[in-house]
């Protein structure tokens, strides 16, 4: 059996999930190379800032929708069978205001907030909330069982699963994507590189994807536990602001969000935005605080800012020959990296198999 030398560039959720699925083939010898690793906290390392949850955004029949659909069974399995992964089922209520239709957040959540979305047959317990139960100003709402992921547990869990299968990890800063091909731990030149560098693909030599944009997300992590997940399609505070809550399992705290600020690179939390986020979340989910209390009833753990790697044409999951090296890209997932992670990684597997079949055919 011939050995396939593979380098995965990037150790966010896309890189780790790709490495994990690739590692299940014993012929693949894999090195993950990354500037940042699980446990690091840096604004350019997006994955640790995510909520994260499963709220599908892809249109029915789109590549993103298919990747999200393909990811659900994996997350469901983890929630049912792997408590050490930090993934748990959680009820989700999604509310819609018709007046948000043309706003930034309204467009972002357009598929999620449809009265009869495609994912109604995928997630458990999907139901439309009766009109007489809707809050004032809300035009329709859905409920279903989702999952919430404690990313501080899940990312190290992914790394540990990779290590169990022999994947090696190296810290490095790579300026050109083909440089990764010569950085395999074996000293051999890689047969291909899997590029999972997220927003860094904007400036990564050989890629230089100028269709990528940072979408700034600000959140507040609190100790208060409302017990479920909530989201609404928009706010009256600003076009690039949103409102959502989710409870991270395994003591990860409750996430209060948020913002969707295109091309905003500011890594510092905005205290005024933080106040608006907390007020909106309490209005959306009054059980966050003791009855009659406002933001003074919140026990704040920390404030955070992450930059979602949004690509204009959607995630780039495709193969490309750069110079004499094959590269399989898997980046540009915006705010849906976790909920599309396994679907995208399965496509990486297919593309990798195509490249390696050519190599192995030439070696016959």
UniProtKB/TrEMBL annotation:
Tell me what this protein is called.
FAD dependent oxidoreductase domain-containing protein
- List ligand-binding residues for D-dopa: 335
Entries under Pfam families matching the protein? DAO (PF01266)
Q: What Gene Ontology cellular component terms go with this record?
A: cytoplasm
Gene Ontology process terms (BP):
D-amino acid catabolic process
Q: Where is the FAD dependent oxidoreductase domain?
A: 6-350
Q: Which InterPro entries match?
A: D-amino_acid_oxidase_CS (IPR006181), DAO (IPR023209), FAD-dep_OxRdtase (IPR006076)
């Amino acid at each position: 059996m011939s050995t396939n030398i593979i380098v995965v560039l990037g150790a966010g959720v896309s890189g780790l999930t790709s490495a994990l699925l690739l590692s299940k083939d014993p012929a693949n010898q894999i090195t993950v190379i990354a500037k940042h690793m699980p446990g690091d906290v840096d604004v350019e390392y997006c994955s640790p800032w995510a909520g994260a949850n499963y709220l599908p955004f892809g249109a029915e029949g789109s590549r993103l929708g298919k990747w999200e659909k393909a990811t659900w069974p994996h997350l469901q399995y983890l929630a049912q069978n792997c408590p050490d992964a930090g993934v748990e089922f959680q009820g989700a209520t999604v509310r819609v205001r018709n007046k948000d239709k043309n706003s930034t957040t309204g467009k972002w959540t357009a598929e999620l907030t449809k009265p009869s979305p495609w994912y109604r047959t995928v997630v458990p317990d999907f139901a439309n909330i009766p009109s007489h139960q809707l809050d004032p100003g809300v035009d329709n709402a859905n409920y279903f069982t989702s999952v919430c992921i404690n990313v501080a547990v899940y990312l190290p869990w992914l790394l540990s699963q990779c290590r169990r299968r022999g994947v090696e990890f190296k810290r490095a800063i790579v300026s050109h994507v083909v440089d990764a091909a010569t950085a395999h731990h074996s000293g051999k030149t890689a047969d291909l590189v899997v590029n999972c560098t997220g927003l860094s693909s904007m400036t990564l030599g050989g890629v230089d994807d100028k269709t990528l944009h940072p979408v700034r997300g600000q959140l507040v992590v609190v100790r208060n536990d409302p017990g479920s997940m909530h989201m609404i399609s928009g706010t009256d505070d600003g076009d690039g602001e949103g409102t959502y809550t989710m409870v991270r399992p395994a003591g990860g705290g409750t996430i209060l969000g948020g913002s969707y600020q295109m091309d905003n690179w500011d890594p510092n939390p905005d205290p005024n935005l933080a106040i608006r986020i907390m007020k909106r979340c309490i209005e959306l989910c009054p059980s966050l605080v003791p009855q009659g209390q406002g933001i003074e009833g919140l026990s704040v753990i920390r404030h955070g800012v992450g930059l979602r790697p949004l690509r204009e044409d959607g995630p780039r999951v495709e193969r490309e020959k750069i110079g004499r090296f094959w590269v399989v890209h898997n980046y540009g997932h915006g705010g849906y990296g976790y909920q599309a992670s396994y679907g995208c990684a399965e496509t990486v597997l297919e593309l990798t198999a195509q490249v390696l079949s050519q190599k192995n055919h030439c070696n016959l």
